[in-house]
Amino acid sequence: MKTGRGGAEIRKRAGARVGTDLKDLYQEVIIDHNRRPRNFRKMEDATRTADGFNPLCGDQISIYVKLSDNVIEDVAFHGVGCAISKASASLLTTALQGKSREEATALFKQVRAMLTDGPAGSVMPESMGKLAVLSGVWEFPMRIKCATLAWHTLMGALEATGERVTTEEET
Ligand code: ZN
Predict the structure, then answer these.
(1) CA of 148 to the centre of ligand 1 (A)
(2) Distance 68 CA to ligand 1 centre (A)
(3) How far is the CA of 124 from the centre of ligand 1 (A)?
(4) Most CB contacts within 10 A, which of 51, 79, 166, 169?
(5) 70 C-alpha vs ligand 1 centroid, how far in Å?
């Protein structure tokens, strides 16, 4: 992968938080989650669902949640999309099993900040557990919406507005 948008410079200033070895490892994990997505199924007894669409890339992801007393008892996803969108959705489902709605919302905000603000932002990838593997996407602005799609869709499911979630603002 090439480094875009002066990412190397900014990383240097931020104290070289993500080394080359770590970046390779992150890529491995993303490739693995794309090839063998976790919790990739339509959930028949979901209590909340939402469909998400990223028109920039064509990613279409549905999120299924079994919510009980504000706790995510089960979460799954289905759909078609690029490697980043599928890996991000797969990681989401593994990170949110058993979490409360509030914890899910907090994690959504952290992931979004990590992806959009990059190393200059307040969210340290080290504090994000397995989700740290998504931190490198920040260097590829075209792919950020691929990575955040599942998360926006999850929020749509938890808010249950019944509207299709899109990464583009409605006008
Ligand atoms: Zn995509």
Answers:
(1) 10
(2) 31
(3) 24
(4) 79
(5) 30
**Can you give the C-alpha Rg of the chain in angstroms?**
16
pTM, two decimals, is: 0.84
**pLDDT of residue 98 exceeding 70:** yes
What separation in Å is there between the alpha carbon of 91 and the centre of ligand 1?
Answer: 15
Residue extents of the structural domains in the chain: 7-166
- Ligand 1 centroid–CA 98 distance in Å is 27
Tokens of 80: 């078609």
Alpha carbon distance 138, 18 (integer Å): 12
pLDDT > 60? residue 15: no
Alpha carbons 112 and 106: distance in angstroms, whole number: 10
Question: Could you tell me how many residues make up the chain?
Answer: 171
- From the CA of 69, how far away is ligand 1's center (Å)? 33
Ligand 1 center from residue 74 Cα (angstroms): 24
The neighbour count for residue 58, using CB atoms within 10 Å, is 12
pLDDT tens digits, 31-70: 999 999 999 999 999 999 999 999 999 999 999 999 999 9
User: Among 141, 133, 152, which Cα is nearest to 32's?
Assistant: 133
- pLDDT, tens only, 71-97: 999 999 999 999 999 999 999 999 999
